[in-house]
Design goal:
It comes from Diatraea saccharalis (sugarcane borer). This protein is 29% helix and 25% strand. It is of the alpha/beta class. The protein has two domains: 138 residues; 274 residues, Spore Coat Polysaccharide Biosynthesis Protein SpsA, Chain A (Alpha-Beta Complex).
Length: 500
């Protein structure tokens, strides 16, 4: 009687052991499958984060190396309606940061000579004492693996406060597909290039069609565009924002590209309430994340933004409407002020009628906001109309350049901006810079602006060119809507015209 029970117990124990072994085996296999799928999914997500999925706007794109602070800033300002790939500083290594990348297209125009099947130019800021030595990969459409490209570097600027502007070029000799991105990594075979941040490329054209020499078409096709950067102290008031846009719109500028993360979301939202037939302008906002101390790297960041501005506005089919013919990069406190003419188009007609001058240089004049108001200034005018003396203070002011895109017959001409350079005399055009004048030796320690007694010591000269635009500014439709305060109380675009 005992033997059958013992035999039965042994059999059951063996079944339990077999079941445990099977469960353990299935668990291990499942774990390995899960681990494999996890790493596969993570790799795919890295690629998708760069290339994007259908239906994503550019503002929703974030690739490897995208700054989390920058992402939150973009999402916070989601009403800015970023319609193009935003330029973003991304770290290549601790000394070098990429900004934006542009693909030269040779597909549309068969007559163009091809140096490479694909060439990508990337704007880069780096420490001047470090020699760039990198490798590059080009990411292709419909491919999850990059192709190794040929790396080359162009030095664009001299050293400025220890920084330098470069163009990193990555090229492919064979047409292996349409490039969608580029990445750079240290020239070290122990470095995994898949972890390098990826810049999404913006496609541009490499040759411009010459204009017809008909005077009517020639004159009517002048389309100046302004790219706006932060002030050296990167805070702007609502008043200054509106005054800058409205004033330069009066000067004939309809296209504004703004590189600034400090613009209040409320300002943008309220500005969007204005109907397009009232504003008649086009505004593109790009957030700005600067990788170094802003005050120290300001000039080199400005140069990078100007280059990005030129790349974006470069077009081959110039006869298309609303394509910029000239660009100028200004900070919020800089204003283009004609002396004889009333707009920029008239200045170009007189100063460069054949549109052959590539760069027109304008010397800025410093108008200290802490000077006394002009006694003859009208009550209710903005400060830019009340400050009528420019000061010769030992404070360096760099020239402002107006770039003529019509003089550029190929994309490479952007790298040779000073081939023809001409100074615009003050009698024709001035750049007025309105800022509080401070002692540069005390500025870093929080020194206040010069007081009234100190201001009298500096040499200064009367300049009233801005005054003639005062009445036009305050009577402008948009400016009247702003100063009335009503636009800031509206929650929709209803009855906006009733306020005029």
């Amino acid at each position: 009687m005992k033997n059958p029970r013992k035999s039965s117990g042994n059999i059951m124990r063996k079944y339990y052991q077999l079941i445990l072994v099977i469960v353990c085996f299935v668990s291990i296999v499942t774990l390995l499958i899960y681990r494999h799928e996890y790493y596969r999914l993570r790799y795919v997500l890295e690629v998708l984060n760069f290339f994007g999925k259908p239906g994503l706007s550019e503002i929703e794109f974030c690739g490897p190396g995208f700054n989390a602070t920058m992402l939150s800033e973009i999402l916070r300002n989601s009403s800015m309606e970023v319609r193009e790939t935003p330029p973003l500083f991304q770290e290549i290594d601790e000394h070098v940061y990429s900004y934006s990348s542009f693909l030269r297209s040779y597909n549309k125009y068969d007559k163009l000579a091809q140096e490479h099947a694909h060439n990508i130019d990337t704007i880069v800021i780096g420490k001047a004492n470090v020699r760039p030595n990198f490798r590059c990969n080009i990411w292709l459409e419909n491919s999850s693996k990059p192709k190794s490209g040929k790396f080359n570097v162009k030095i664009i600027s001299d050293s400025v406060n220890g920084f330098r502007l470069y163009i990193f070029q990555c090229s492919l000799n064979k047409n292996l597909g349409k490039p969608k991105g580029v990445s750079f990594y240290i020239n070290d075979y122990n470095m995994n290039p898949i972890n390098a941040p990826i810049n999404r490329v913006i496609q541009v054209n490499t040759k411009r069609k010459p204009r017809e020499r008909s005077n009517i078409r020639f004159v009517n096709n002048i389309e100046p565009a302004v790219c706006v950067i932060p002030n050296q102290v990167p805070i702007i008031s609502r008043d200054a924002f509106i005054e800058f846009l409205v004033y330069h719109h009066m000067m004939g500028i309809n296209t504004f590209t703004i590189y600034d993360s400090m613009i209040s979301e409320d300002i943008i939202r309220r500005l969007n309430l204005l109907p397009a037939d009232i504003t008649e302008w086009s505004i593109q906002f790009f957030p700005l994340n600067y990788p170094f101390v802003f005050a120290k790297s300001y000039e080199i960041v400005r140069s990078a933004i100007e280059l990005d501005c030129l790349f974006r506005h470069f077009r081959y089919d110039k006869e298309d409407i609303n394509k910029a013919s000239h660009t100028v990069t200004l900070s919020w406190d800089e204003f283009l002020v004609p002396r004889v003419h009333n707009n920029l188009k008239a200045i170009f007609d007189d100063f460069d009628p054949l549109r052959k001058v590539r760069s027109m240089e304008v010397k800025p004049l410093l108008f200290c906001l802490n000077q006394n108001d002009d006694d003859n200034a009208e009550i209710g005018y903005p400060d830019i109309m009340k400050k009528t003396h420019y000061f010769m203070i030992p404070q360096p002011l760099n020239s402002v350049y107006m770039r003529n895109l019509d003089s550029m017959t190929s994309f490479s001409d952007i790298f040779n901006l000073n081939s023809t350079n001409k100074n615009i005399p003050l009698e024709i055009l001035g750049v007025h810079k309105y800022t509080e004048c401070r002692d540069p030796k005390l500025y870093q320690s929080g020194g206040a602006g010069y007081n009234e007694t100190q201001m009298q010591v500096f040499q200064h000269k009367f300049e009233g060119a801005m005054l003639k635009f005062g009445q036009s500014l305050v009577s402008n439709k948009i400016y009247r809507l702003y100063t009335s305060g009503q636009i800031w109380e509206k929650t929709s675009s209803e009855n906006i015209r009733d306020m005029l």
